[in-house]
Each structure stands twice: as structure tokens, then as C-alpha cells.
Amino acid sequence: MRDPYDILGVARSADPAEIKRAYRRLAKKLHPDANKDDPKAQDRFAELNSAHEILSDPDKRGKFDRGEIDAEGKPKGFEGFPGGGFGRGGFQRGPGGGETIFESFSYGPEGARRSGHGPHDAGGFDDVLSDILGGLGGGRGRARGRAETPRGNDIDITVPVPLETVVEGGPVKVRLPNGRVVEVKIPARVAEGHRMRMKGQGEPSAFGGTPGDAYLVVAYAPHRVFRIEGTDLRADVALPLAQAVLGGKLRVPTLGGEVELSVPAWTDSGRTFRLRGKGLPKAEGGEGDLLATVRIALPEERDAELEALMRKHAGA
């Protein structure tokens, strides 16, 4: 797997806010639902989620920067069983030439630790394996030969949610890392960044343990009418020329349906009206506003009387 910083396109000095912004931008661009014709889209999206998981977690990021874990979040230094021995040291021979000492490795805050077992305290191969697995999982097993098997990693899955669903609630389809598509109900009035846990739907364990969890992170999907500015919405609204001059009631779209806006006489094109509480839900409660900018629009068909009036006005 590539370097997480390269995957997110951020510098190693990037702060959490930069990492979050980069992830959201790329998640919308690389999401499999937006790249249905690309057979590698799922792999790229999974790679992005793995990179974000490491860099968004201060502890994991620190370990990666110090070289304690690799780009997949796995501890470095575990080299398997080369040459029939164990770890770097393998078996060591005693004065009589017999294999009397196991040399094992475990992982802790200080990195790799080496420990030896003499002929009287050696617990056998199961104990050595228990040390390795227990260290990787955050502690030794409770019984000899029964290390607690590490679970898979948790992952974040950014889910673009239509703005109408954000307000009203409803189902959205989510593609999981294993390729399965499930339908998840989004609660009403959910704010961007809201997290929903799906137990056991994260990455599988590399050691045969239980999978991690998947956390669905709500993101606002682009809208054909509204532009998003935090919890506020912006929209351009066509204003007939007659209403711009004489004033009147103008129908304005909102996420909850159209509402009437009173437009005063002699309203210039480009004037913005604030409709309070017609924006997006706020995490702390309440809603943002809708900022409606009117744009004067001519009639769809040519109007001879209007043209004559304009000529008269121009010659006045």
C-alpha cells in the first residue's frame, strides 16, 4: 500500500483539519457509486479509507511517523519463521549443543522486545506464539496458548446523502469494503459528519479474529439547485421583469417545498434575501438559512408591448 500522506495528497505537517478536508474531497471523487464503470474504484476507495484511518488517529499517525507500523497499520519487525527458527534469533544452542532457549519477540510502547526462555521456564511454541499475538492485540492471552486474537481495523465510509434526505430522513445505499451493497436508514435532521456504526462490517482480521466495525460518515451530496455554505444554502431565483419593477410575491424553492417571498418594487437583479431556518440542520440544534439571490428574467416569448415601452423609455 502507498504512503497514506501520498494517498490523501497532504504534507507530513498537515493538521487534522487539512487531513479531514482532503479525505472528504477525495471520498466524493473516488466513491464507487460515482465510478460505477471503473473496476478499480473499490480498491482505490478502500485504500483511501485505510490511509484516512491511520492519519486521522493521533496514536496510529504517531506510530506510522516513527516507523512502528506500516502503511496498512501493521506492526513492523515481525519476520515470521525464517530458517526453521523463530524471529531473528531462532533457536540458540546451549553448552551441549542442544536447542535449549526460545527467543521470542513481543511489541509494546517501546517497540520490539526480545525475551528468552531457558530449559526450566520454556513454555513451548504455544507460549511464544501467545507472546506475539498478545503483543499485537494489545496484551497477552489469559491462558497459556490462548492469546486474544486481534480484531480487524475499524474504517470510516463517507456516504454522500441527498439534501432532502438530510432533512426528512430516509434510506441510502452504501457499498461496503467487501463489495456488498446495503440499504441504511438515515435519521431526519442529521448534520454533516454524523457517524453511524455498523458492527462487524469493517476490515477483516489478519489473524482470523473478528472483523472491525464500519462507521458511516454523513456527507452532503451536491444539489442541482442549492449551493452549500456550511449549514446555509444559496440559490438563484428567476425574478420576472414586471415583479422587479412593481413588486409582488415570488415562489422560492426550499428543501421542504416552495415558499412565498415578498419582493419590494424596484428590486435590482442580484439582490439577496435571507430566509431564516430554511437551510441545513446544525449539529448543536436549529437550522441554517437559505440565501435567495434574485436574477431578473425576461419573458420566454418576445413581447411587442414591452419592446415598445422600452423604446419609449430609452428615447425619453
From TrEMBL:
Residues 29-120 are annotated as: Disordered. Residues 80-99 have a biased composition (Gly residues). Keywords: Chaperone. Gene3D superfamilies: DnaJ domain, Urease metallochaperone UreE, N-terminal domain. Residues 30-46, 54-77 have a biased composition (Basic and acidic residues). Residues 3-68 form the J domain. InterPro entries: DnaJ_C, DnaJ_domain, DnaJ_domain_CS, HSP40/DnaJ_pept-bd, J_dom_sf. This is J domain-containing protein.
